[in-house]
Amino acid sequence: MASATPSLLDRTGMDFADERIALACAFRWTARLDMHESVANHFSLAVNDAGTKFLMNPRGRHFSSIRASELLLLDAEDEAAMERPDAPDPTAWALHGSIHRRVPHARCILHVHSRNAVVLACLADPTLPPIDINAMRFWQRVSIDDGFDGMALDDEAERIAERVGDKPIVLMRNHGVMAVGETVARTFDDLYYFERACSTYIEALQTGRELHIVPGEVAAKTAQQWRDYPDLSENHFRELQEILDREDPSWRS
């Protein structure tokens, strides 16, 4: 994750400033790419070694206007979180809290209802075939949650936490998508490329013509090449922050 400048950190005095700034960038760009939905989606980032303390967007705030300082600092082990004056959204608390409590390696969790990923999640067969280089990035790297039973509360949240495993993408049937990773930069990059891969696939289906699907060994080779490509996610995310800074650096505050 990119770090804020020392002078900015001195002025803000924010706890976990670097983490807040990185997550704020992800919110802003998700809104620009129209991958969010109203004020209903949520991102979180663990800030302690156990993964139980995490930052998350406040209830009812639009992604396009979120600033680093207003992110909530929550503890997944704190049963009184929903009694706070600034209590988080209940579905977000249930889903993200459950994952941060049960899956320590899930440092960053980005959950959206992006258009094309939702379309894929609504198909009878929600698998993403390796038809283009972006789809190949996710070859055998998507976990599909088939048990949708309403909003992510209680048992729903616990079940989804079990589905995370070691995959960077959880496709939530009839619901949305969740990207999970170690850093904001890498997790956002996965979310971005998964939505693009879904878009290509959905548009290809709309042609009604036969798809050209590459062999599994080619897809596996390409997926590994994606993982080995140096600094791709970090460079992408650095550029996004620099664009925001040139336009209006107040998002960092």
Describe, in short, the structure shown:
With 253 residues, this protein is an alpha+beta fold.
Descriptive key words:
seven-stranded mixed beta sheet; 7 strands; 253 residues; alpha+beta; L-fuculose-1-phosphate Aldolase; disordered N terminus; 43% helix
Give an overview of the whole structure.
This protein is an alpha+beta fold and 253 residues long. The protein has one domain (6-252): L-fuculose-1-phosphate Aldolase (3-Layer(aba) Sandwich). Helix content is 43%, strand content 13%. The protein has 9 helices and 7 strands; from the N terminus they run ααβββαβααβαββααα. It has a 7-stranded mixed β-sheet, with helices on both faces. Helix 2 (17-32) crosses helix 9 (232-247) and helix 3 packs across helix 6. It is globular and about 55 Å long. The chain starts with 5 loop residues before the first helix and ends in a 6-residue tail after the last helix. 40% of the residues are buried. Mean pLDDT is 92; it is low at 1-12.
Largest sheet, if any? 7 strands, mixed
CATH topology: L-fuculose-1-phosphate Aldolase
What's the assembly state of these chains? single chain
State the fourth-level CATH superfamily. Class II aldolase/adducin N-terminal domain
Q: How many strand units?
A: 7
Per DSSP, what share of the residues sits in E-state strands of 2 or more residues? 5-15%
Which CATH first-tier class would you pick? Alpha Beta
Task: Encode the helix/strand succession as letters.
Answer: HHEEEHEHHEHEEHHH
CATH architecture call: 3-Layer(aba) Sandwich
Average pLDDT, rounded to a whole number, is 92
The gyration radius over C-alpha positions equals 18 Å
Distance between the termini: 17 Å
> In which range does the helix fraction lie?
40-55%
